Amino acid sequence: MTASHIPVAATRPWGRVRRGQSRKRVFGTVGFHLSSSVISLLWFAPILLVVVTSFRSFNDIALNGISSLPHSFTFATYAQAWKLGGLAQALTNSMIVTIPTVLLSLFLAAAAAFGLSRYRIPFRRTILLIMLAGNLLPVQTILIPIARITQDLNIFDTLGALVAVQTAFGLGFYTFVLYGFMRSIPTELQDAASIDGASPVRIFLQIVLPLTRPALSALGALSFTWIFNDLLWSITLIQTSSKLPTTAAVLSLQGEYVSSWSVIAAGTVIAAIPSAIVFFIFQKSFVGGLALGSVK
After folding, report:
1. At what angle do helices 261-281 and 87-118 cross, to 10 degrees?
2. What is the secondary structure of 56-99 as a DSSP string?
3. Is 209 exposed, middle or buried (CB count within 10 Å of its CB: 0-12, 13-18, 19+)?
4. What are the respective helix, strand and coil percentages of the chain, to the nearest 5?
5. What is the DSSP letter of 142?
6. What Cα–Cα distance (Å) separates residue 20 from each residue in 8, 33, 200?
7. What is the pLDDT along the chain (296 residues), one digit of tens a residue?
8. Among 48, 108, 176, 228, which one has the highest count of C-beta atoms within 10 angstroms of its own C-beta?
9. Measured between alpha carbons, how far is 296 from 277 in angstroms, rounded to an integer?
10. 116 phi and psi, to 5 degrees?
11. Rounded CA gap, 238 and 169, in Å?
């Protein structure tokens, strides 16, 4: 067979297609990373502005503007925010409200989700939708009625009022998420435990609740952030300055005529630290737990 009769491999068109696809894939990957970087920078810019502002002096901001490059660096703003805002007491108040509220609301939501997902309760879907519909109600429309109710119950201007209100308003969403998660647990585990003589309470506490730990961790981090950073209910139900949570205490740093933006920014950074710590601790189960609960 001569050289002129040697068959030519028919892979050139496929090679061109593959090269074209690889170029599109590279361009797509580069474009995705560039757009993601730009969006990340735009999202991070306000946070960076607050952090930088917290280290600037009052004279620097007054002379050059809050959006200018910093001409000073000081830690005195954090000391002023800590002292003027009473952040030591405010952080304590926030923890007194947040930790019991998270534990109580998650336990009640888990118990409700267990009953609705594992037993044939009449109108259980209707009950679940009614609980979830409470989160769609604008909070601003019920501020005054809730305040009047707390006054009638003699718990107005107490941290217990915040615990009760935050627990009630978060219960519907937490139950909805845990309901979807618990439905994914095989019923054979419950049937086997029932045959062995386990009561529903024991099945819930020793079998279902440990298996729900990923969703509980995700909801715990989410609810901690919501409750700790809440401002509206704090300024509605609390009037005594020594009982104010952190966000309301930071708001009190704003003056009536002149505001020291560096001190306010320092107080904002201090207030954000606990939520950031909780998020980084539970970040592995945060997205995964919510995703598992949303597929049912």
Report:
1. 40
2. S-HHHHHHH-TTSPP----SHHHHHHHHHTTHHHHHHHHHHHHH
3. middle
4. 80, 0, 20
5. G
6. 22, 20, 61
7. 454 555 555 445 555 555 656 676 777 787 778 888 888 888 888 888 899 999 998 888 888 888 888 888 889 999 999 998 899 999 999 999 999 999 999 999 999 999 888 888 888 788 888 888 877 878 888 889 999 999 999 999 999 999 999 999 888 889 988 888 888 888 888 888 888 888 888 888 888 888 888 888 888 888 999 999 999 999 999 999 899 999 999 988 887 556 788 899 999 999 999 988 988 887 776 666 555 544 44
8. 228
9. 30
10. -75, -30
11. 18
Nearest CA to 275 out of 238, 233, 223 is that of 223
Q: How far apart are CA 252 and CA 84, in angstroms?
A: 9
Token couple for 288: 């995964």
The pTM for the full model equals: 0.80
Identify whether the C-beta of residue 209 lies closer than 8 Å to the C-beta of residue 189.
Answer: no
Structure tokens at 67: 């959006």
Tokens read off for 136:
């769609």
Structure tokens at 108: 């009640």
DSSP character string of 188-212: HHHHHHHHTT--HHHHIIIIIHHHT
